Amino acid sequence: SRIYVPDAKSILVERDRVVYVDDFSLAKRVEHFSLCFASPSLNRTQCKFLGVKKLSDVVHEEIESMSEDNIAESLKTLEREMESTMRSKAFACTVASLIRYESHGSHNSTTTMMTTVRSETSIVDTLSKWKLRFVSKIRTRLLLRGTKEVARDNTSTSFLERKSQTIFVKTKSVHLTDLVVARLVNRVLGSP
Which residues pair with 134 in a beta bridge? Predict the structure, then answer.
């Protein structure tokens, strides 16, 4: 039997032809490539229940090239400081506190405390494997279903490369570096 879901234009479309937007920055870069987005009134849980694929599962972004030319020594120092902070126990405690705060209503205090202790260790273990690199240029390519190139992008201010476990941040966005790194750390830890 066929299942139909509303797309972004409120037209019923077969679910196999629709993708759920789980990454808005990615959606902006591929929206003109005849991909059909699910209605924004459908949430993540509903899309999963209906079998609608996530955009990030259908379109893959990979780094094509990057350049570390012309990175000032002050930025290299900042890079090292931020990487050290990102790997620190204090940072992990802060992140775990945020997790505890977000889940406060759904757990009793003993379970939350045990989860938070585990989370701190898990966060330190996860982030200790990642490197932070400031670069002057990032060029990526977007692949539909892993094979067909649909776009190349020079506009990325950051890129998370899971294969080498490296977070690349373009130095032109250095005034936003804290926010960019926070967003990428969030993604490393598995948050949307």
Answer: 169
